Fold:
Amino acid sequence: MKGKLAILAILFAVLVGVISFTRSDKPIEVQGSDSALASASSSHVEEVNDLKISLNEARVEDLADEEDMQLVIIDLTVENTSNEVKEFALYKFTLVDSEGYAHPHASNVETKGILGGQLHPDRKNRGEIAFKVPVDTSYELIYTDHLRTGQVSWEITIDS
Structure:
């Protein structure tokens, strides 16, 4: 019985080692410092369920290892205008390309500031969120409050 448990423990350790070795949480390498600016064509400030979200700016950075993909990095400010603590999470953001495909944020990209967590009343938080997306000239940033059924969006155009 002890031999079977030892073999099971060894197999489990090997499985955990293989999974952790093959994970793709490696940082994304950005190619050079060439970055294009992007502009938002709709209002820069949108409000949903007492959260005021401002799109400050957006920029694009080329990826070193993938010519058909790029990083769109968006600088946002989130303000809680309510009298209670609000939860704020990056998974509520998607970036939709011109073909209609939605892309989640890329968590393995170094960005400025930290977005997410609890936001107390009358507090602001500023930070960047990155998306690894196919090369395109226009996108739509969408924030969806899944629990309170609200959604806001911004059109983003890449300046060549």
